[in-house]
Amino acid sequence: MPPEREEFGPLVVHIIEDDDAVADALSLALEALDRLSRTYPDGETFLAGAELTSEDWVIVDLGLPGVSGTEIVRMLSLMPQPPRVLAISGKTQAKLTQHLRDMPDMKVLRKPLSIEAICAALA
Fold it and tell me: What does UniProt give as the signal peptide span (predicted)?
């Protein structure tokens, strides 16, 4: 395990977001909450390098280029001990409903995000 994981405990929040400003803002907000975060610019980078435990959280943008956020969520749900997942999106409600028709219980926060909404979702 990397030393950072031991230092901050088992909880890591993995952020998969292609908008650098949104990823940075999320990371800074989580840092203020004493949460260790890792950011990934796309699904491919996340899938190639993330070390996950069931204690971790994954915040995933549903509108990712390449491997979609929806596909990432499906892959994570197939893991024997999946991490907890929070989806974020700037899509309209109609598009969200279409994307998540097979995942009705998925937690989704709409952009723009607030620190209060993130805290509530991760609680």
Answer: none
